[in-house]
Amino acid sequence: MAVTVVSGLPRSGTSLMMRMLEAGGVPPVSDGLRTADEDNPRGYYEDERVKKLANDDAWLDGASGRAVKVVSALLPHLPERHRYKVVFMRRDLDEVLASQAKMLERRGEPAGDDALLRRAFVKHLEATERRLATAPNMDVLYVSYRRLVTAPDAQLARLGRFFEGALDATAMASVIEPGLYRQRREERG
C-alpha cells in the first residue's frame, strides 16, 4: 500500500488537504507538536520527523495507507523503497507570499523580499515538478487551492479518481471552510 504524501509550498493549503484526507478516511501521520493557531485554526498536521528525512527515514515504513505532510523542499529525501501517492497543492504565489507575510507579522518576525522569494519559489516549483514527473515510485495529483475552496466538487471528483474511490467525498467536503481562505487575490479574466 502506498504512502500518501501531501506537499506544496508553505501556505499552499497542505493542512487543509491533510484535514480533508483524514475526514475522507486516510489517517494522518502527525505528532501534534505544532498546535492550531490563528494562521491554521484547524491544525498543521505536521510531524517533526519529516524535517530529518535526509538522515532518518525508517519511521516511514509504518506510514503505508496513511498521509504524511512533506513540504516540497524535502520531497527529494523520500526513500525510493516506498510507493507514494503525492497530492501537490498549488496556490497563486501572490497569495502564498501574502499569507506568509501575515503569519510572520503575527509572530513579530520580519518578512522577506517578495520579489526574491517569488523567483526562488518559481525556480523551486519548476525543479520539483520536473523531478516528480520522472519519479518512478510516485503518482502525482496537482490540486489548485483556489478551486478546491471555491468550487470543490470537481476537485473532489479528481481526488476520488486518484484514490480509486476509496475516499468519503461528502466527509471531505464538510471540512472545507471558505472563510479561512483569507489572503485571496482576485481571479484574472
Write up what this structure looks like:
This protein has helices at 14-24, 93-107, 114-134, 145-150, 152-162, 169-174; strands at residues 3-8, 28-29, 67-69, 84-90, 138-144. The protein has one domain: P-loop containing nucleotide triphosphate hydrolases (Rossmann fold), CATH 3.40.50. The chain has 6 helices and 5 strands; from the N terminus they run E-H-E-E-E-H-H-E-H-H-H. It is an alpha/beta fold and 189 residues long.
CATH H-level superfamily: P-loop containing nucleotide triphosphate hydrolases
| Strand/helix succession | EHEEEHHEHHH
Low-pLDDT stretches: none
What best-fitting shape do the alpha-carbon axes yield? globular
Largest sheet: 5 strands, parallel
Overall pLDDT metric:
88
Judging by the overall fold, what is the CATH architecture?
3-Layer(aba) Sandwich
The percentage helix is 25-40%
* N→C terminal distance: 42 Å
CATH topology: Rossmann fold
* Structural class by sheet pairing and helices: alpha/beta
Range of strand content: 5-15%
How many β strands by DSSP? 5
How many distinct folded domains? 1
